[in-house]
Amino acid sequence: MKQILHLIRTQPRLSKNGSATLIDLGEAISSTATREEVDVLLKGTLMTESHLRNACLQAIQVSFQA
Question: Can you give the pTM of this predicted structure?
C-alpha cells in the first residue's frame, strides 16, 4: 500500500490508475485488513495532495462498507 501511495504522490501521470488500484485493494482487504494497512490509509488522508487524500478516503469507505 505504501508503494501505491508513493506512486500516486510522485507520478501524476499514473495517479488515476494508482488511485483505482488503491480503491480495489481496499475492497479486496475489507474483511482481513490489518491495523498497519488501515494506518497507511489514514495517514494518506493527511497528505497535501488532494487526489491522494480522496483515493485513501475512497479505499477506507469501500474497506468498511458492510
Answer: 0.90
